[in-house]
Amino acid sequence: MITISDSAMARIKDMLEEETPNMFLRVGVNPGGCSGFSYGMGLDDQESEEDVYLDIKGLKVVVDKESVRFLNGLEIDFKESGMSGGFTIHNPNAIATCGCGQSFRFKDEEGQPQACD
Description:
Layout: E1 2-4, H1 6-17, E2 24-31, E3 37-44, E4 51-56, E5 59-64, H2 65-71, E6 74-81, E7 84-90, E8 94-97, E9 103-106
Parallel strand pairs: 1-6, 2-5
Antiparallel strand pairs: 2-3, 3-9, 4-5, 6-7, 8-9
């Protein structure tokens, strides 16, 4: 369902080492953003009955049940660029993305567009 590149996996594991035990990667989709939906990705230690659990290369990844349908085929990468770097997300299900790269739209879902910063 979700693919994480080697560079992204290394960065996520580095981040987890700096945190308290029992942390995991949470990935989700939220209504809003310029195109209707935006991604949520971060470290978490709170679990819910509404979560789906994945093991990706030994990394615990948690997705809420509402987001699962939007994330099939999702690819997470980490790119270094000059003096900065960051995670990139490619979603083959998105039909349009915002110029900021953080917001997207699906064919059958409009979401709730908001102004970009």
